[in-house]
Amino acid sequence: MMFADSHCHLNYKGVFEQQGDVLARARSRGVGAMLNISTRESEWDAVVATAEREPDVWASIGIHPHEADQHPDVDIARLIDRAAHPRIVGIGESGLDYYYDHSARARQQASFRSHIGACRETGLPLIVHTRDAEEDTLAILRDEMQQGAYTGVIHCFTASAAFADAALELGFYISISGIVTFKNARDLQETAARLPIERLLIETDAPFLAPVPHRGKQGEPAFVADTATFLAQLRGEPIEELAARTADNFFTLFNKARA
Length: 259
Prior knowledge:
alpha/beta, 10 helices, 8 strands
């Protein structure tokens, strides 16, 4: 049985210093694929280096909406140029975060559109972060889709059921994190229970959001097995089936990793 952690940060402080042990623990629990996500340009080289060194780790390049103000020069051309690396299989995470507003909303939106443009040009999937910005996120995704098809995933999904339906209509995948195991996540649990298995991914967002029974600890990719177990029980599916389908979905969406 193999799990795929579709979103983790293996080069973040607290994880990077023990990266070898973190990877060993993940593999011991059946995690056979991990996507190491970048959030700022200064991380790109290190994130890619980990993917070059570890055969079951791949990389993304992107600018988190929190960092958009600090990266006005990261445009479509720069993203396309870096995305040519064989271990880079996705663009992002990018999107909109109106909860913290660490960057101006107009700058977040412009950066988001640049990432989508890079996805359209490269054929790589978009990794979307959205928080308290459902309306604008969906408006941009729809508007950009009219300009040319692209694909992607709504990472660490916590949005409304209506947003999930809209994202699925656009052809997106939806990734469920350890938040689904939290007691106060009833709305998310209801949505996760009915998501089509062929569009479902799982993730840790490590080092954040450790699932039950690890709440309060630093998250790591090994914990994706706990999220998967909870999700399988929630959906009434055998854990073997959910693991296999979400792993297959990972390689279907991030098809450059399959090569």
